[in-house]
Design brief:
6-stranded mixed sheet; 42% helix; 14% strand; single chain; 660 residues; alpha+beta; 23 helices; globular; binds zinc ion
Length: 660
C-alpha cells in the first residue's frame, strides 16, 4: 500500500467528406504549407475533433484564412457549409470543392490537430514543477558506488518491464523527431497518456501524434473492449504475478517470468552483481535480500524474497531497496502487481518515532479492535514501525509523473503480510526544499481561516507523523489479506473499492491514533492539532486531483480525502464560511477547523470504515460512496474552490540526479 501526497471522439470530418477523399489527400500537394510538421499520416478518423472555439483560435494562430462560422448540423463537427473563407475574393477551391473538403483542407486540419496536441502536451508538462532529488556518492566507497551502479541499471530494466505492463513499451516509436516536449512527456509519464489534473481527460493530450488509446499490456486487447472484463476474470487469472493471454473463450494465466523472462533475468544479473560488490562482514542483510530478489526475478516466487526483505531494518543496513512487482493501482483491475524500484538511504532520524510508537503498537491494535467490535478480534501485531528513508531513485511504478509516494507498507500479499511482519517506510527527503514548503503554506492559507492556520504544521518531524500513522494503520484492524467467509477484500468489494476502503482505514487510522498519542503523553494537544491541520491540507491536495480517472476508475486517495472532508463537515468539526476571507486575505470562502470536535468525528468514521471491512459489508461501502462521493454529501467538499486554489501552483514533478 502506498500513500501519495498530494495523479467517443471519432473524427468524422464532415458528412460530405467521403473516405475516398480522405485517401486521395495523402498524395495531395498544395501551396498552403501547414505551420506545424504533421505526423506520418494518421487516419483522420482516429484524431480527436477540434471544437469550434479551438478551430477558430488555431486557424488564427496558424494564420489560416479559415473560420468555422456556426456549429449547426452535426453538432461538434465542422461541415463544409459551415466553413467561411476569410479575405476578399479568396478562392475557396483550396478548401472545399463542391460540397466536400479538399485533401488540402484535410491536411491543414491535421496540422491544426497537431498544434492543439502540442498545446496539450505543454499544458500537461507545465502542471509539474521539476523538483530535484539529488544524491551525491562522490565520497562513497568503491563497493557502494558499484552497488549504486548495478541498482540504477536494474532500475532502467524495471522501467522497461513496467512499460510492458502499461502497454506503452512499443508506443515509443510513435514519437516525432524534433518535438522534445512529446519525448519529455513520454519519459516523465512512462506512457504517452496524460496524468495531470487539467489534461488527463483532454483527448488531445498524448505524446503520440496518432493518439493511441490506453490498452494495458496485462490483458489481451480484445478483453479490454469489455467494460466488465475485471468482473469476468477468475481469481486465478487475477493473480498478482501473472498476465492474461489467450482468448475470451480460453483465457490463460501466464507467469511474469514466462512472459518477460529475458528482461527479468537481466534484472537478476544486476542484483547478483550488486551483491558481489558487498564483502563478508557488513551489510549482510542487504546482501541476502539482493540475492533473494535475484531469485524472485528468475522464479516468480516472491515469498522467500519478502522474508529476506522483512529481515532488513534501519539498524542492520544503511540501504533501503525494494525491487519487485508490488502495487496494483496502475492497472485497470487493480489486481496485478506493477514493477518498481524504490532505492534509498536510511534516514538516521528513523529511530525517533519508532522508539515512541513501538511500545504502543499492540495497544493500537487493541483499541481499534474494540472500536470495530466483532467479528473482528485483535491480532498479535508485530509490525515494524516506519523507517524514514531518503530516496535516491524511484523507477517504474514508483516513479510518478507528479507527486510521489511518501509512505509505503509492503508486501501486499503472502505470509509476511498475513503475519503483520511487513516493512513500512516514510520518504523523508521529498518536499523538504524551500520552494515546496512555501507552496504548501500558500495552499493552506488560501483555503483555511487565519484561526485554523494557527496550527499550521511547520515542523518537519511532526509533518511526517500522519504519514507514519497511516502506514502503521495499514497493519492494524482488518488488513489486505483479512478474509470474510474465505473471501479477501478484492473478491468481496472488487479491486478499486477494496483499495479505497483499505486506504480509508489507514488514513482514518492516522487521525484516530493522534488523540490516542495525546492521551499517552506522546503528543501535546497543540501538536495533535498541527497534525490534523497537515492531514486536512493533504485532503485538499487530493480533492483537487478529481475523484475519477479518465476511464472512470476511482482514485482511492481522492475518495478518502473527500470522505474525510465531507464527514468532518457533517460532524461540525469543519465548517465552510462562504462570506469570510481565507488566511491569505485574498480568497473569499474558507474552511474553519474546529479542532476540539475532530476526535469524536474521527472515532465515528473509524468505526464505520472498520466495520465495513470487518463484515465485508459491500452495500454499506457503496452507500457511503454514493452519498459522499457521488451524492449529496459531496456538496460539502467544496471541490471547485479547492481545485481552483490548489491548482494555482504546479505539483512537484520529481527529477533524480545521482552523482559519483
Ligand atoms: Zn495507504
Amino acid at each position: 500500500m502506498k500513500y501519495l501526497l498530494l495523479s467517443g471522439t471519432i473524427m468524422i470530418l464532415a458528412c460530405g467528406c467521403t473516405p475516398s477523399v480522405l485517401k486521395a489527400e495523402k498524395t495531395a500537394t498544395s501551396r498552403e504549407q501547414p505551420a506545424v510538421q504533421t505526423p506520418a499520416e494518421p487516419d483522420l478518423k482516429q484524431l480527436p475533433k477540434l471544437t469550434r472555439d479551438d478551430f477558430n483560435r488555431i486557424a488564427a494562430l496558424m494564420d489560416l484564412p479559415l473560420f468555422w462560422s456556426r456549429d449547426g448540423q452535426n453538432r461538434g463537427s465542422l461541415d463544409p457549409d459551415e466553413l467561411c473563407i476569410l479575405g476578399v475574393g479568396t478562392k475557396s477551391e483550396h478548401y472545399i470543392q463542391g460540397k466536400v473538403f479538399t485533401p488540402n483542407f484535410s491536411r491543414i486540419y491535421r496540422s491544426m490537430v497537431e498544434l492543439r496536441r502540442r498545446e496539450a502536451v505543454a499544458r500537461e508538462l507545465d502542471q509539474g514543477r521539476p523538483t530535484l532529488v539529488h544524491t551525491d556518492f562522490k565520497k562513497a566507497s568503491d563497493a557502494d558506488k558499484a552497488i549504486v551502479r548495478h541498482i540504477t541499471t536494474a532500475a532502467r530494466i524495471i522501467e522497461e518491464l513496467y512499460a510492458l505492463q502499461e502497454g506503452s513499451f512499443h508506443l515509443k516509436s510513435c514519437l516525432l523527431p524534433g518535438h522534445p516536449p512529446s519525448q519529455a512527456l513520454f519519459r516523465r509519464n512512462q506512457v504517452p497518456w496524460c496524468r495531470a489534473p487539467e489534461t488527463e481527460n483532454d483527448p488531445f493530450c498524448n505524446a503520440c501524434p496518432d493518439f493511441p488509446q490506453k490498452i494495458s499490456g496485462l490483458y489481451p486487447p480484445t478483453f479490454q473492449k469489455d467494460k466488465d472484463m475485471c468482473q469476468k476474470l477468475s481469481d486465478e487469472l487475477l493473480d498478482p504475478f501473472v498476465v492474461v493471454r489467450g482468448t475470451p473463450e480460453k483465457p490463460e494465466a501466464v507467469p511474469y517470468t514466462k512472459e518477460w523472462g529475458p528482461r527479468m533475468s537481466a534484472v537478476a544479473r544486476e542484483l547478483k552483481a550488486a551483491a558481489t560488490a558487498i564483502g563478508d562482514k557488513e551489510e549482510q542483510a542487504f546482501k541476502a535480500y539482493l540475492l533473494a530478489a535475484a531469485k524472485g526475478f528468475e522464479t516468480n516466487v516472491w515469498g522467500p524474497v519478502d522474508e529476506a526483505w522483512a529481515a532488513m531494518n534501519a539498524k542492520n543496513s544503511k540501504w533501503y531497496l525494494r525491487i519487485a512487482p508490488d502495487e496494483v493501482y496502475f492497472e485497470p483491475c487493480s489486481r496485478k502487481a506493477g514493477f518498481h524500484v524504490s532505492f534509498a538511504l536510511i534516514d538516521p532520524d528513523s529511530l525517533y518515532w519508532q522508539e515512541k510508537l513501538t511500545p504502543l503498537r499492540q495497544d493500537m491494535e487493541k483499541i481499534l479492535a474494540e472500536l470495530i467490535g466483532p467479528p473482528y478480534a485483535a491480532r498479535k501485531v508485530s509490525v515494524h514501525l516506519p523507517d524514514f528513508i531518503q530516496i535516491v531513485l524511484n523507477a517504474g511504478d514508483a516513479r510518478s509523473p507528479m507527486g510521489a509516494t511518501i509512505g509505503q507498507s509492503l508486501p501486499n500479499w503472502g505470509k509476511v503480510a498475513e503475519e503483520g511482519r511487513g516493512r513500512t517506510v516514510v520518504m523523508s527527503n521529498l518536499y523538504t526544499d524551500p520552494d515546496s514548503k512555501a507552496i504548501h503554506h500558500e495552499r493552506a492559507a488560501s483555503l483555511l481561516s487565519a484561526e485554523s492556520m494557527k496550527y499550521y504544521c511547520e515542523d518537519q518531524r511532526l509533518s511526517l507523523l500522519d504519514i507514519i500513522l497511516h502506514e502503521a494503520a495499514h497493519n492494524f484492524g482488518p488488513h489486505s489479506d483479512y478474509k470474510v467467509d474465505g473471501k479477501r477484500p478484492g473478491a468481496i468489494f472488487g479491486g478499486p473499492l477494496a483499495s479505497t476502503l483499505e486506504e480509508l482505514k489507514a488514513q482514518t487510522g492516522a487521525l484516530y491514533y493522534l488523540d490516542f498519542l495525546r492521551e499517552k503523553g506522546v503528543l501535546t494537544a497543540e501538536d495533535r492539532n498541527r497534525v490534523y491541520n497537515h492531514a486536512l491540507v493533504w485532503c485538499f491536495g487530493h480533492i483537487s486531483r478529481g475523484m475519477f480517472g479518465p476511464t472512470g476508475k476511482p482514485k482511492p486517495y481522492s475518495h478518502v480525502a473527500a470522505i474525510h472532508v465531507a464527514w468532518l463537515m457533517r460532524e461540525g468539526a469543519l465548517t465552510w464560511e462562504a462570506d469570510q476571507l481565507a488566511a491569505n486575505g485574498k480568497d473569499q470562502g474558507r474552511f474553519s477547523i474546529h479542532y476540539d470536535k475532530i476526535p469524536a468525528a474521527v472515532d465515528k468514521l473509524m468505526q464505520h470504515a472498520g466495520r465495513i471491512k470487518a463484515k465485508g459489508d459491500k452495500p454499506a461501502a457503496e452507500a457511503m460512496i454514493d452519498d459522499l462521493i457521488k451524492g449529496q454529501g459531496y456538496q460539502l467538499v467544496h471541490d471547485q474552490e479547492i481545485k481552483e486554489r490548489i491548482l494555482r501552483h504546479p505539483k512537484a514533478s520529481f527529477v533524480y540526479s545521482v552523482t559519483f
